[in-house]
Give the backbone structure.
Amino acid sequence: MNNYLIDHKNESERLNFQNKIDICNLDEELGHFTWNRNDYILDAGCGNGNVIEKLVEMKMGKIHGIDFSLDRIKDAQKRFENASGVSFSQGSLEDTKVADSTYDTIVCRYIYEHLSNPKAVIKELNRVLKPGGMINIINFDDMVFNFYTKNEHFNRELKKIQERIPQDIQIGRKLPQYLKQNNFDKVQWQAQTYFFQGERLAMEVKNSQMRFEQGRENLARYFDSISDYDRFVENYLNELHDDCNVLSSNKYLIKARKCAE
Ligand SMILES: C[S@@+](CC[C@H](N)C(=O)[O-])C[C@H]1O[C@@H](n2cnc3c(N)ncnc32)[C@H](O)[C@@H]1O
């Protein structure tokens, strides 16, 4: 089941905008990992192909992208129609329909906080990875809701909604253990905390606005009414403008090896 709550025809535009925020620096993120040009690489949850664009620039020979959203896959196919060695398919990461031990390396960027069954996805990605192959994960932890405002009622609202949504916003910190428990070894991780101020905050305000607009239909289900949702969004965006309200988030960079058989 596709539970990507902010899926929308404008999602490619939002992803491209988000990539311009300094905390989403793809070169830095990908530079953290080792890449081998002869590897067959899977970009799991590829969206419109921003990670793949970098991998093509890095001259990786063979890349496949899988995403649940047919619109994202179409955007990506159009973008890479002249690139050799790049292919895409629409599918669920819980059940990719790909043969066992297909890929040498898997990259997943910003997907786990959107999944309702992250452990099932870890198991499935382990299955399609060759023994000894690497999974490279870039994931935020505590996005959007790690926000303390002057408005105590609103702070309680933030907690309440976080508990209602099926996705785990604090998945980043759990991934190293989940990997270790699911046939990965040599798990290495590091994390950075980012605070939103100045230009970064201004960009995050716009990003949040887009998220909330795109996800209105899906997200409102976790509120008592659509007007409660609209009020929540209005309060959220207003509180972001107060420079003594602190919004922060952690980014995890994790690599792990599929246990050799
Ligand atoms: C925040 S976007 C990240 C896209 C891309 N990795 C990037 O860094 O630009 C998350 C993507 O995960 C996809 N997604 C979410 N749940 C999925 C699932 N169960 N199976 C496949 N794709 C999924 C969404 O369609 C969306 O394109």
